[in-house]
Amino acid sequence: MKTTFLEFEQPIAELEAKIEQLRYVQDDSAVDISEEISRLEAKSLALTKDVYSKLTPWQIAQVSRHPQRPYTLDYVEHIFSDFEELHGDRAFGDDRAIIGGLARFDGRSCMVIGHQKGRDTKEKIIRNFGMPRPEGYRKALRLMRLAEKFDIPIFTFVDTPGAFPGIDAEERGQSEAIGRNLFVMAELKVPLITTVIGEGGSGGALAIAVGDAVLMLQYSTYAVISPEGCASILWKSSDRASDAAETMGITAARLKSLGLIDRIVTEPQGGAHRDHKAIAGSVKKALQDALKQVSGLSSTELIERRFDRLMSYGKFKELPVH
Amino acid sequence: MSWLQKLLPPKIKRSAESTRKSVPEGLWCKCPACEAVLYSTDLENNLSVCPKCSHHHRVRARARLSMLLDEEGRFEIGSEVVPLDPLKFKDSKRYTDRLSAAIEETGEADALVVMQGAIKTLPAVVACFEFDFLGGSMGSVVGERFVRGVKAALDLQAPFICFTATGGARMQEGLFSLMQMAKTTAAVARLAEKNLPFITVLTDPTMGGVSASFAFVGDVVIAEPGALIGFAGPRVIEQTVRQTLPEGFQRAEFLMEKGAIDMIVDRRELRDKLVSILSLLQKVPAVS
Description:
The complex is a heterodimer of chains A (322) and B (288).
Chain A: H1 10-26, H2 34-53, H3 57-64, H4 72-79, E1 81-85, E2 98-105, E3 108-115, H5 121-126, H6 134-149, E4 154-160, H7 167-171, H8 174-186, E5 192-201, H9 202-206, E6 213-217, E7 221-223, H10 227-234, H11 241-248, H12 252-257, E8 263-265, H13 276-295, H14 299-312, E9 316-318
Chain B: H1 3-7, H2 10-26, E1 28-30, E2 37-39, H3 40-45, H4 61-68, E3 75-77, E4 81-83, H5 95-106, E5 112-119, E6 122-129, H6 140-156, E7 160-166, H7 174-193, E8 198-207, H8 208-215, E9 220-223, E10 229-230, H9 234-241, H10 252-257, E11 263-264, H11 267-281
Parallel strand pairs in B: 6-7, 7-8, 8-9, 8-10, 9-11
Antiparallel strand pairs in B: 1-2, 3-5, 5-6
Helix pairs in contact in B: 6-7, 7-8
C-alpha cells in the first residue's frame, strides 16, 4: 500500500518519491545504486523521526484522521480471534458507524465495540464517516448488557468525529442514547477498557468510553469539541483550528499529564498508518496489562473504583466553609 | 426614521438611542414572542411568563429556586466550589477574564446553583443552571456542585431535581468538561440505586453535553413550553445536512411528539405538578 502523506509531511513525501524512482531504475541499471537508495532511506527515516518529534497538536489531529489509519476492524483482525459481529439495536436499525460483537482475547471470551470509519467513498457513506446515530449507541448498550450478563470483559475502540448531528438523529433521541450509555456504563459489573485509536470526538466518543482504564494512541486526540468547531465558536473562524487545538489540550501527552487518561500507546515511526501490525501488537500488550489490573476485582470493587475515578474528574478551587 | 432623528447630528443620535434602550431594561420589557410591551413587575409576578401570550421567558437560577422552594429551611449546597482555569485557556479573551466578567454580570461564581429545601413541605434537593453565566455551560464546578447536590439528596433520602438551561459543555475547560458528563450521570445512577426520584426539568435552552448526559435519564423528564432542546445546535445540523430545519424542530412540543419527554408543563403549574409526581413516586399522601 502506498503511503498517503499529509501536508506537513511533504519533505518526506518528496524523498520517498525519489527513492521509489531509484528503485525503479535500479532493475535495468548497470551501476549499483543500492547504496544510494539505502542512504536515502536512512535519511527519510531520520526526517520522519524529526518531523514527528515536533508535531503540533493540530498536526497530531491530522494524523489521527489519516485516511490510512487503522480502524476498529483492523484491530479486531490483528488482536482478537473468532470475532462474531452482532447487529442491531432491536428497535430501529443497525448503525454501521458502530460495530460490535463477541470475540476471543488471548483465547478468552470478550466483547468488542468500536466506532468504524470507511476506507473508500462507498464505505465511508455506509459507515457515515464514523458518526453514529442513536441506534448505534443503543446497539452498543445492548452489547454491553450482554457482556455483563455473561460476565465477560468489554473492549471499546474510539474513533469518531462525533455523534451524527442530523435531523433523524435528533428525532430518535441522540441525547438520550448517549446519556443512557453514560448512566449504564457507570455501574456495569464487568471490566471496560477503552482505547482511543483515532479521533475522540466529544459526547459521541464518551458514549462508549467510560472505562476502568482509558488508553490513547500516541497520535490520537480526545476533545470536548473539534478544533474547527471550537475555533468557529470562540474565534468566529475555523481557520484558527490550530490555535484551538493548541489551547484545548487534545493530545495524548497533554491529557496524560492532566491525569485524564491512564496510558499512552506509542505508535510506530511516522504514525500507526505506516504499520498496522506493529501498532496492533502494541495495543494488544497495553490491553493485556490494563485488563490484568482490574481482572482480580469483584464487581462491587470494580464499580466503586470506576465511580471514584469519575468523581475525581474536574479541577476547581474550594473555599473554606464558614 | 423620524424627522427629529434626521435632523440630529450622528453623535447625538447614537447617545439618544442608547438612552432609549436603557429605559425598558428596568421598568418595561418587550415579549420577544408576541411583542407586547410588558410592565416588568407584572411579568415577574407571573413567574416570567408573558401574561398576553404565555411565552416562557428565561429565568435566573435563584429566581427559579425562589419560585419553587418553601421559604423556610433552604440552604445552598456547593457554593464553596469555585472555578479555576486548568488549561490556561485563551481565545480572543482569556478564560479567567471571561469568568470574571460573568461573575460580575451575574453575581454567581459559576453556572449552577444547588439548594436543599422543601417543595410544599416535601424535602428535595434542587439544582438550577444559570444560563447567564457563560451560557450555562458545564465545567468542573458545575459538575462538582451537581455531585454534591446528589450526595446531599442521598444523605437526606430526598429526591433530586435539576432545572437545565445550558448551551452544553464548557469548551474552555477542554476534556475536563466532557468528563463532567460522565461524572454527573454516574452520580445520578446512585440515586437510582437507592430508589430516590430524579426529575429533570428542561428549560430553554438545553443542548449539547448536558442534554446528552443526565438530562434524559431522569425518572420523569419535564420540559417547559417552547424550550429548545437537543444534542446538536440547529446551525450545526443545518450545515451538516444542508437542509432547512422543519418548523418547531427541537422545541419541547416536537420532543413530546417524538416521545422523548414525559410532559410539557406551564411554569405556573410546575410546582404543583412536581409535588404531585414526587408524592406519587414516594408513595406519600397527596400534598395540597
